């Protein structure tokens, strides 16, 4: 009996080739949007991590402040629970780092001519959480030694940038979910109409099966198999298209997306993507075909 059901489902899929293709394409669009949303989620997480890695508070100390005094101030800051790490950058290290990064620029020669190191010793403070920078900055401002020790404080607060990225990410997720719902609804209608047309073209066969005692399940499952085949094919096409597109565009995408390697991210989450898109496609196919055939059988 099971073999007969699968055989009938396959025959329905082949005989209704154009309708099956339409249903497959509708499911494909919904699945592609879902995969795209997943990749975008990875991009947003990458962007936030990149911004967070560049957030710091840099303290530049007066010329006359000794290394020991700076390290004492550093030890005091390290007692704050909001502080994750503090890096001491000496005048010499700051000079060497600048020369290394700008060795091809003409004003490097001017630095060598004056034979004076114009850079100041500094501390680079990294917080445990972007929200902690305000507390650290306030502590520094209120410290009684600040005015005597510190020449300049650079607050590289990027909390607003992170909030904007998260806001954009949330908005795009809403749009993405909306598109998934839209294409899922279109796929639902397409499959529904496909099954209805298939049933209509085979209504006499169904009536005969009912007359000879066929159960509703025996009649219904071939149509579910038909729509499931559409879902499996759509899922497979979605996987291959996405994989090929990311592979071919990987280099240019990486430059455009701030170094985010979408192809590598796709491969790292291969099992999640495969399982997720297959579940979405098959669930969509199962629900729509079940509703269509159940409505007809309940008449």
Question: What does this 3D model show about the protein?
Answer:
The chain has helices at residues 2-15, 17-53, 67-78, 91-101, 107-114, 133-142, 146-149, 159-201, 203-211, 216-248, 250-256, 262-268, 270-297, and strands at 56-61, 83-89, 122-127, 150-156. The mean pLDDT is 78. α1 packs across α10 and α8 (159-201) runs parallel beside α13 (270-297). It has a four-stranded antiparallel β-sheet. It is α+β, with helices and mostly antiparallel strands and 299 residues long.
Helix-strand blueprint:
Blueprint lengths: L1 H14 L1 H37 L2 E6 L5 H12 L4 E7 L1 H11 L5 H8 L7 E6 L5 H10 L3 H4 E7 L2 H43 L1 H9 L4 H33 L1 H7 L5 H7 L1 H28 L2
Antiparallel strand pairs: 1-3, 1-4, 2-3
Helix pairs in contact: 1-10, 2-8, 2-10, 2-13, 8-13, 10-13
Please name the defining characteristics of this protein.
299 residues; alpha+beta; elongated
Strand content: 5-15%
Provide the gyration radius in Å. 32 Å
Q: Which spans of ≥5 residues are poorly predicted at pLDDT below 50?
A: none
Order the strands across the largest sheet as they lie in space: 2-3-1-4
Class from secondary-structure proportions: alpha+beta
- Span of the ends, CA to CA: 25 Å
- Report the helical percentage: over 70%
Enumerate how many helices there are, as a single number. Answer: 13
Beta strand count: 4
Q: Mind summarizing the main beta sheet? A: 4 strands, antiparallel
Shape: elongated
Order of helices and strands: HHEHEHHEHHEHHHHHH
Mean pLDDT: 78
């Amino acid at each position: 009996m099971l073999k007969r059901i699968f055989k009938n489902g396959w025959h329905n899929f082949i005989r209704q080739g154009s309708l099956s293709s339409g249903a497959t394409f509708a499911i494909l669009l919904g699945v592609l949007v879902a995969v795209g949303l997943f990749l975008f989620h990875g991009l947003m997480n990458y962007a936030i991590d990149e911004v967070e890695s560049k957030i710091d508070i840099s303290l530049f100390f007066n010329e006359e402040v000794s290394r020991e005094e700076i390290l004492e101030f550093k030890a005091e800051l390290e007692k704050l629970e909001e502080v994750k790490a503090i890096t001491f950058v000496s005048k010499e290290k700051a000079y060497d780092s600048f020369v290394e990064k700008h060795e091809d620029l003409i004003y490097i020669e001017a630095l060598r001519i004056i034979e004076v190191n114009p850079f100041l010793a500094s501390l680079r403070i990294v917080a445990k959480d972007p929200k902690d920078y305000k507390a650290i900055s306030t502590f520094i401002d209120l410290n009684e030694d600040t005015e005597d020790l510190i020449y300049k404080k650079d607050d590289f607060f990027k909390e607003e940038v992170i909030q904007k990225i998260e806001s954009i990410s949330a908005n795009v997720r809403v749009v993405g979910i909306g598109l998934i719902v839209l294409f899922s609804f279109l796929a639902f209608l397409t499959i529904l109409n496909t099954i209805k047309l298939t049933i209509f073209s085979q209504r006499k066969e169904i009536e005969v099966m009912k007359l000879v005692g066929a159960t509703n399940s025996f009649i219904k499952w071939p149509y579910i198999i038909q729509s499931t085949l559409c879902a499996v094919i759509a899922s497979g096409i979605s996987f291959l298209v996405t994989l090929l597109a990311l592979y071919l565009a990987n280099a240019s995408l990486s430059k455009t997306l701030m170094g985010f390697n979408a192809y590598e991210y796709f491969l790292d989450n291969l099992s999640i993507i495969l399982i997720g898109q297959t579940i979405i496609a098959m669930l969509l196919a199962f629900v729509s075909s079940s509703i269509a055939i159940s409505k007809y059988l309940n008449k």
